[in-house]
Specification:
By secondary structure, this protein is α+β, with helices and mostly antiparallel strands. The chain folds into five domains: 182 residues, no CATH class; 69 residues; 107 residues; 70 residues, Helix Hairpins; 183 residues, Heat Shock Protein 90, CATH 3.30.565. The chain is 59% helix and 12% strand. The protein has 20 helices and 13 strands. Strands 7, 8, 9, 10, 11, 12 and 13 form a seven-stranded mixed sheet that branches. Strands 3-2-1-6-5-4 form a six-stranded antiparallel sheet. A hairpin with a 5-residue loop joins strand 5 and strand 6. 30% of the residues are buried.
Amino acid sequence: MLLRGRRAVHLLFAAFATTVAFWYTSQSLAGFLRSEIWYRATVAFTVLLPQFAVVLFDSIVPAEGANQGVKSAKMRRSALFVGVPMLALGLSPYHDHPIARILIYSYVFGFLLAALVSLARQGQKSSSRAVRDRVRFLVATGALACTFTLADFIVFFGVSFPPIGAVLAIVFLFVLSESLARPRMADIYELSGRLMVSTLLAFALAGIFYCFITYVGKLGTMYLNAVLASIVFLVLFEPLQEEVRARVHQFFFRERYDLETSVSDLRKRLAHALEVEEMVDTVLSGLERSRRVTSAAIYLIDSDGDGFDLSGSLGAQPNKRLESIAIRPILDRLKTTLSLEEIAIRAAAQSSQPSKEAPLLSAAITLGPFEKGAIFAIRSDGDDLQGLLAIVDDRVREAFTPEELALIENVASQMGIAIANTRIYARMKERDRLAALGSMAAGLAHEVKNPLGAIKGAAQLLEEAPGDASTKEFLGIILEETDRLNRVVGSFLDYARPRSGNPAPLDINAAVKRTVQILSSQQSTDVDLQVELSPSLPLAKIDAEQFRQVLINLVQNAIQAMDGHGRVNVTTARRRAARGEYGPSSDRGDRNDRSDRSDRTMAERANTARMEAAAEVIEVSVRDTGPGIAPKVLKNLFIPFFTTKDQGTGLGLAISQRLIQNAGGTIEVQSQAGAGTKFTIVLPGVAELSTPLPTPATAAE
């Protein structure tokens, strides 16, 4: 103990432990040597025991209030006042008289019990639950040690009793030393629990052995008795150990036992949560049933990663949102668990100098009712922070022990797994819903095409028949709108069930050059269509007709965005594929998925993996000098049927994205208001030519 510190309580414990050691040593020597001096030494150490015990027990929990301090001082003076005559009586010639012994031992154990009672009262008045748990355990152990040590001395009055007081005294000293070395009882919870289990188990096994020796040993079969006792030990040890452990934890650590039971039940129910709302309700209801928190809140990260939105709470009303910037010091320190109350207590103990925890404590104020609570990180499998779990028990100080925090930390970890599972489940439901919707829509499109053909045929027949001009005009409108609806239905079928085409290694430069030549012959002279081709491009495996369709769509969109006046640059380039380059990006074509960047489709993930594995990638960029695309429009750009054109179907870019993704690539878009827009087709390169190059189809073809 002296190696751990030089505070007053350390010195008092060292003195008390040394007195106990000399007390037992003098008793042993007195029994072996039968010398009068060791009897007198035993009496002297006996009188000193309560003197050190009263002061030591009073120092374990500092007195709160002047009245308690007066009572403690009064007990110390009383112990000293009574101890002096008891020491004189013990050293006098009458120390062997029964009355003298009764007086001395009444003084010793009376003041020891009084000191324990005073310690218990001080502990109960403490506002810290950890202190109360520690003191309750110390008092129980000390009372047992005093009781059985007193029973050891009944032998002097002719009564035989098993000498187990010394064992409990050593147990008490050990627990007391650990408690003083670790200010929080929670740090020695497991140790003390095992200690009590082992002690009670030892008593139970010793009782079994005692019965064999006492009642069966009279037959003179000592070896056989030892064998029988060993068999009984082997049979009863494990079930007896489990039963003793359960009873000890349930009796001495009731709150911890209830919390463990509640958390275990909570984790079982959490494993079946398939919706985020269900997960939040399960966790909050489980924490409420544990009766260990007065308030709790669950925050989940928003789509932009700029803050955390409240998903559910109980108890005090928390803030609806936590900004990442405001709680940055907390996030920087938060690995798995962060006890803000413990940090505040540590900072208060260093109030004489500027605290390094000041930024963190300032950030904690933004947590509202959880300013002095415990914060847990909710992380997914990839160690990405998905949310925060905040709890607080404002009924007591130091409400949560480290072991209890570890229990709830397991809940937070399982919440991260549950969130990942809910997202997978949501994607599966969405995929199934879209698949069903696509099949239904495709069937509906076919059903629409048939009457459209009939309507168009009838309108054409009526148009050929004689009639007035107004009738001809209306028939023209019918034919025009029928053609437009037919194009929409055809485009939708292309999107819902795209053709696989004939993927083959393609010379991208040749395909771009031929496509631009066709487009140039169809455009007005007010559009400057320029081409910059990078030499020695690798081949790309894609259907030539589908690539041409995508490129034509992008160029025509660029021309339409400039209202037929401006410059369009079509360029090709090659570069090395960097690993991780195709993660979520704010300027990526799939910005419509930005609300849930971790939930990209399986096709996108497969494309990303293929492109990262490729040695090189090919970029085909289409840049215009138009007005650019507004951010609100940009994030919906690839959503089917979303369009800003009066006559557009909203399927051109969606179909283009689908075709490029089927080829293992992606379409990226960058746009700035007033500075034009740039679409980039990114395709993985193939190492070598395995089939003859296809010739890009001409316009007539």
